[in-house]
Amino acid sequence: xxxxxxxxxxxxxxxxxxxxxxxxxxxxxxxxxxxxxxxxxxxxxxxxxxxxxxxxxxxxxxxxxxxxxxxxxxxxxxxxxxxxxxxxxxxxxxxxxxxxxxxxxxxxxxxxxxxxxxxxxxxxxxxxxxxxxxxxxxxxxxxxxxxxxxxxxxxxxxxxxxxxxxxxx
Length: 169
Fold this sequence. Notes:
Blueprint: H1 2-5, H2 7-18, H3 21-35, H4 45-56, H5 63-92, H6 103-124, H7 130-140, H8 145-168
Helix pairs in contact: 2-4, 3-5, 4-5, 4-8, 5-7, 5-8, 6-7, 6-8
């Protein structure tokens, strides 16, 4: 677990040891950070940055392949997170007068995501921990899936491009 949490520090060693399997490891880390609500502590921003920095220093990692893999992981991770929210949401809000999971909160979440959901999905990408919670709440709040996936893709592309490029340059 310590190794995964500090993967950004160990990435150079990992590239030399694992070669092309490094892309799969990067995919798994970003997928878990964005797709599994219980793992928001995994390195996201710093991992993207270090991938770019290592590629700039001539390590055997292709920045384009890494960017595509990381973008795919981010999109799929958020989509899984959204689906978890969609599946769990209705069962949580069945009872009328539950203090934390009040049906009124669900209605307010739905209204919020109808009005501000797109920009929330995109901007959350750039905020650790928040990026893990927002897709879940979008699913619980019944944000339309087509709208969600469009902003999910846009946010993932922007997030990966910005941080990998920042590391590279």
